[in-house]
Amino acid sequence: MSNSTVVYWALNGYGVTAFDLFTNLIILVVAVWIIVLNSLVLQSLREHKNKEATEYYIINLSIADCLTGVYLIYNTSYNLTNYQKISECLLRFGFGLCLCICSGMQTVALSLDRCIKIVSPFRYTDICNTRYVVIVTITTWTLSILIGLLPLMGWINPQENENTCGFMKILTIGYFQLLIVALFTPCILIVIIYLRIFKEAHRHAKSIASSGADSTTTSHSLKFTKTVFIVAGSYLLCWSPMGIVVVLHVIGGLDDYTYVERGNLIIYATAPAYINSLLNPVIYALKVPFIRTRFNRIFCRKREEKGRMELMKTVQTNDVGKTQSTNEKVVLEELQ
């Protein structure tokens, strides 16, 4: 890095370039939008009455996504200051990994909830009761926090200098192997669950077609299942790059790279994962009616007011038409 490209010098002799500033500005904007959109989802869900287990899992996922936005803001400040202290480094890594693992677990919980709803609709309320939701919520968050804090508890490579920070350098291969399990287990479970859902949905479709009946409840369940499927698919696509890089690191596929190059690679690979936290509320806004209504009120206020005015004109026109029709009928009766 030449001195001419450096905008200012941060801590530990790190030169911050114009590219660094531009990149972190984009990250900061994305982080703010992640927090704003997920906060709107949480507000919509808080006001929604008669919530099912599905909504509570979406709440958990939105909280994790919201915290991801907070994490990105903090990480941006680190990128522009380069404060290097191993304890801070481990806490920051642990926080990010905790949210990553929790997102995966909540996506599995969402998918399993939809599977139970489709496969055993009459037992759904008995199985997915309040106690079940609380147990799943506590278990997923506890496991996520525990796995995230393991490096801070001492599961790291010995370091000669306390003023150091490097994701690939500090964390052990054993911990990365645990991360592979934590990242890919949800992916495998999601695929298995949706294969089961599609099989059952196909059976439902054949049954309805043969009987000629129409089930509104089943149709609603399938629509919500499609929404969860999109969320799950988004998770798989966005987190796969990070998972692939971690696997390559564990099997020695990155041994020819320096620790700095490996760190840069993991940064690029996690970028889609953070975008996932921005996509989730957009998916809810497009697919879940009561969340879409709140988003429209805020982001499409002019269009909503225009639609309301057109609706009022239509109603008034209909009222006038009805009045004229009534008057004509009275005149005809009098003529007769």
UniProtKB/TrEMBL annotation:
Bilayer topology: Multi-pass membrane protein
All residue ranges annotated as the G-protein coupled receptors family 1 profile domain in the record: 37-284
Keyword Iron in annotation: no
Record carries keyword Chaperone: no
InterPro entries given in the database record: GPCR_Rhodpsn, GPCR_Rhodpsn_7TM
CDD domains cross-referenced by the UniProt entry: 7tm_classA_rhodopsin-like (cd00637)
Keyword tags: Cell membrane, Membrane, Transmembrane, Transmembrane helix
Compartments (UniProt record): Cell membrane
GO cellular component, one term: plasma membrane
SUPFAM superfamilies: Family A G protein-coupled receptor-like
GO molecular function: G protein-coupled receptor activity
Transmembrane region(s): 21-42, 54-73, 93-112, 132-156, 176-197, 228-253, 265-286
Protein name stated in the entry: G-protein coupled receptors family 1 profile domain-containing protein
Organism for this UniProt entry: Patella caerulea
Lineage summary: Eukaryota, Metazoa, Spiralia, Lophotrochozoa, Mollusca
